[in-house]
Amino acid sequence: MFPARLGKRDPFRELIAGAEEALDLRAHQAGTLSRHAAYLHQWTAGRIWSLTRLTRLTHQAAITAILDGTERITKASLDQVRLDHLAETHHHTTRALSPNPH
Q1: Among candidates 48, 53, 55, 49, which has minimal Cα distance to 33?
Q2: With the CA atoms of 47, 48, 53 and 54 taken in that order, what torsion angle do they form, in degrees rounded to the nearest 10?
Q3: Which of these, 14, 48, 83, 102, could form a disulfide with 87 (CB 3.0-4.6 Å)?
Q4: Tens digits of per-residue pLDDT, 4-35?
Q5: In terms of pTM, does the model score above 0.70?
């Protein structure tokens, strides 16, 4: 499990910010994805495999954003991404228990 916090650091947010810097989208605002780091950590349950898949799918989402002309990735577009079974099961279970999942 990849920690959301480690002392004063936010390693998961740092990972998301690094992946976000690699995106080459004209309309994407820097910090959009890292602003949702807590949501994304909850979604993946901090699992390394899910994080790896999420990073790859984020790049695929960037390609889609280029092709459809939106040139940005949003939380709504990430919600369309499907990860592995364990992450999806955790995500749906947690969302059902949360009074405000977003």
Answers
A1: 55
A2: 60
A3: 83
A4: 888 999 988 888 888 788 777 778 788 888 88
A5: no
Q: What gap in Å lies between CA 23 and CA 60, rounded to an integer?
A: 10
Q: Which tokens hold the place of 70?
A: 């939106």
Q: Is residue 102 part of a domain?
A: no
- Residue 73 covered by a domain: yes
Displacement of CA 101 from its chain's centroid (Å):
14
Q: Give the C-alpha separation, 100 to 13, whole Å.
A: 21
Please state the separation of Cα 3 from the chain's center in Å: 14
| 1 occurs within a structural domain | no
Tokens encoding 12: 């998961």
- Single-letter amino acid, residue 44: T
Residue bearing the bigger pLDDT, 46 or 100: 46
Residue 37 and residue 16 in contact, taking contact as beta carbons nearer than 8 Å? yes
